[in-house]
């Protein structure tokens, strides 16, 4: 399974929606290619909105790392802000510490 990481949290809800749509499109593209993929943003975006869940990595960290432990590799969707994302940087650090391959792709 591929773990698809991307930045998400932002002070502007429009940017968060754009980030969600971009990573959802990339996940769909990978699925069309027959690649099993998991994206915490695709999985959690609607749930966070509908159930007033926090959208920061502090809240989602346990869930994300639990799923990342099961991944064969991680793809980082290099949206603007990926290198400033607390969550993406923590996920990359986890991958490096656990010998999980990390690759970067554009939207």
Task: Describe the fold and architecture.
The protein is of the alpha/beta class and 107 residues long. Helices cover 51% and strands 15% of the residues. The chain has helices at residues 13-32, 40-50, 57-68, 86-97; strands spanning 2-5, 37-38, 73-77, 101-105. Helix 4 links the parallel strand 3 and strand 4. Helix 3 (57-68) runs parallel beside helix 4 (86-97). The two termini are 20 Å apart.
List keywords for this structure.
107 residues, globular
Apparent shape: globular
For the largest beta sheet, what order do the strands appear in spatially?
2-1-3-4
Q: Secondary-structure element sequence? A: EHEHHEHE
Distance between the terminal alpha carbons, to the nearest Å? 20 Å
Tally of contiguous helical segments:
4
Can you give the mean pLDDT?
96
Major β-sheet, in short?
Answer: 4 strands, parallel
Report strand %: 5-15%
- What's the gyration radius in Å? 13 Å
Pairing-aware structural class of the strands and helices? alpha/beta
Low-confidence stretches: none
DSSP E strands, number: 4
Helix % is: 40-55%
Would you spell out the secondary-structure blueprint of this structure?
Elements: E1 2-5, H1 13-32, E2 37-38, H2 40-50, H3 57-68, E3 73-77, H4 86-97, E4 101-105
Parallel strand pairs: 1-2, 1-3, 3-4
Helix pairs in contact: 3-4
Compact summary:
This protein has 107 residues and is of the alpha/beta class.
